[in-house]
Amino acid sequence: MGEHGMADWEARVAEVWARLDALVEERGSGGFRAVIEELAAELPRGSAVADFERASSFDSTGHPERAVPLYREALRVGLTGERRRRAVIQLASSLRNLGHPEESVTLLRAELAAGSDQLDDAVRATLALALTDLGRAREGVSLLLLALAPHLPRYQRSMAGYARLLTAAGSEAGAESESDSV
Fold first, then answer.
1. Which of 58, 62, 84, 146 suits 91 as a labelling partner, its CA being 20 to 30 A distant?
2. Residue closest to 50 by CA, chosen among 67, 74, 78
């Protein structure tokens, strides 16, 4: 598939995902997955992108157990770019949902260390859920506050301070006050 053909394919995939809810309502979960399968089948056999799209369709329709092997294969084959990062997040989320939060935490910690982009907050949110499943809710809330703080119109410094205190060993003190503290 040439560059123009791939751009067209990407646009068609994006359109199907934009209509996820409507397609599931019209055709059911299996019908939605069939549309994604038709698109994935247009790519070469063994395509990491095709495996990712298939995995995502299973995940989005309540079948994480079928998604996990496809995410793993897509990553093994060499999925790149934003899809690679999305695959890690989605794989970690599926593993958590299937009762494997430890593996989820391991994947997401490595992902946070691997670099930074617009998906950082999604990595942190998924990591917070996995940490909560492991009984480490304070650490999870800390991650969420650190992710949220930069988006607040005020209280950024206070929230970041509170986030650090949540995970500080034995700390019961409040964050240092500032003019916009809560």
1. 146
2. 74
Considering the entire predicted model, what is its pTM? 0.89
Quickly count: other Cβ atoms within 10 Å of residue 131's Cβ. 24
Question: Per-residue pLDDT tens for 77-125?
Answer: 999 999 999 999 999 999 999 999 999 999 999 999 998 999 999 999 9
